[in-house]
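Morning. Coffee machine broken again, so started the prediction first thing and wrote up yesterday's gels while waiting. Chain of 219 residues, entered below exactly as on the submission form.
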Amino acid sequence: MGAKGGYIGLQKAKLALLDSNNKVITSGGLNDDGDGIYTVTVSEDLGANAASLTGLAGSTTSVYGNNTRVKMSVGKAQPSVALTVNAFNYETLNKILGREDLGNGKFNFEGDPVNLAMAVYSNTDDGGDIIFGFYKGIMTPGDLSLATDQDTENRVTDALTYTPLGNEDGDYGLIAWSDADGYEEADVLDTIFPQASSDTTSTTTVATSTTTTSTTTVA
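Came back before lunch.
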């Protein structure tokens, strides 16, 4: 039996488009089968290759008085996720980048950012799930450097950046461990991907989040 900690591998990623009420779009969204949640899979996308989560904690600034450090000013976290997918399904990719469908296989280059919720799965040492969930954010594409095939084929992955936005409470998301008592994956996903009472087909452009700063006293 392994430890109930650690971060082992990248199991999968899930995404969903959000409407103007920050509810998952189930009709005309990323998955029309019912819940509107798209899972990056091996069969559709050759799987997720990497997810680099940065900015999960706010920066700290020392406050000095009487020649000593008397307080620490703690800024708000500024999370970002660098997501790499080996071969993202182009239809889903264009939707999450907000690219306009011009018909007959054509999409415009520069998309109009749409709001997305996202979950990234890893595993603990004992095989349990860890879910990093983000309530709302936008996805932007990285550069593409195409080169000729030689002795081996030259593959270019889809390197994307997901920038989370804060909700009304200033929260960006959650972390959940399946080893915890009372854990239910459905409950976690309902929190990350809230369902609307009725379907909607509208998407929304990026909204602005507010950054706050709190101050704590050093004991």
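Residues 199-219 have pLDDT under 50 and may be disordered. Going to sketch it on the whiteboard this afternoon.
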